[in-house]
Design a protein that fits this description.
Rossmann fold, alpha/beta, 117 residues, 5 strands
Length: 117
């Protein structure tokens, strides 16, 4: 399974990548929403783990663009505490789940297995 991790914070991508590769996932990375949209179209990942707040293009805007390209896209949004309005907006735009930072590794893995099953 191929997972695209999208976060403007390199340390967050690194932490997620380490967790997911240990679990046997193939991982690609993007540093902002525009890069995520471009990579989605070339890589066709099984799932996207995407931060909501990013420069250039937000996670919500990137989610809309990805869903416009592929209505079946599986996207899990990652947000900081206190972004409930954005989380609701993301779910309305087609996100399959959301994870709140700081997250527990088991929460990430549970969400992925739920969305990918």
């Amino acid at each position: 399974m191929k997972i695209l991790i999208v976060d403007d914070a390199a340390f967050m991508r690194l932490r997620l990548k380490k967790l997911l590769t240990q679990e046997g996932y193939e991982v690609e990375e993007a540093g902002n929403g525009q890069e995520a949209v471009d990579k989605y179209q070339t890589l066709h990942p099984d799932c996207v783990l995407m931060d909501i707040t990013m420069p250039e293009m937000s996670g919500i805007e990137a989610l809309k663009a990805i869903k416009a390209h592929d209505s079946e896209a599986k996207v899990i949004m990652v947000s900081a505490l206190g972004q409930q309005a954005m989380v609701i907006q993301a779910i309305e735009q087609g996100a399959r789940d959301f994870i709140v930072k700081p997250y527990e590794p088991t929460r990430v893995l549970t969400s992925l297995s739920k969305v990918l099953s």
